[in-house]
Amino acid sequence: MSSTARIAFALCTVAFVAACAGKQEEVVYSAEPQLTTEPVYTGKYK
After folding, report:
1. How far is 19 from 13, CA to CA, in rounded Å?
2. Cα–Cα distance between 46 and 38 in angstroms, integer?
3. Predicted TM-score of the model (pTM)
4. CA distance linking residue 14 with residue 45, whole number of Å
5. What sign does the dihedral 36-40-45-46 (CA atoms) show?
6. What does residue 39 show for φ and ψ, rounded to 5 degrees?
7. Per-residue DSSP letters for 1-46?
8. Which residues, other chains included, contact 17 with Cβ-Cβ below 8 Å and sequence gap of 6+?
9. What pLDDT is attached to residue 4?
10. Tens of pLDDT along 30-46?
11. In the predicted model, is pLDDT for residue 6 greater than 90?
12. pLDDT value of position 45
């Protein structure tokens, strides 16, 4: 085989193995929202 054919075969093999590889699930962590009440305007002297 010529070197060009070997390189093409190697690239096809790598592409095939990469396509057949198992997908890993991405783990996403989310922060809990803060449970605080916002101040409410009740008037000037209350």
Report:
1. 10
2. 16
3. 0.45
4. 75
5. negative
6. -65, 140
7. --HHHHHHHHHHHHHHHHHHSPPPPPP---PPPP--PPP----S--
8. none
9. 93
10. 777 777 777 777 777 65
11. yes
12. 66
User: Hunting for tokens 């396509």 — which residue is that?
Assistant: 19
Tokens at 27, concatenated: 């783990």
Radius of gyration of the chain (CA): 30
Phi (first) and psi of residue 6, to 5 degrees = -65, -40
Residue 15, CB-side half-sphere exposure with 13 Å CA sphere: 6
What is the distance between the terminal CA atoms of the chain, rounded to a whole angstrom?
A: 91
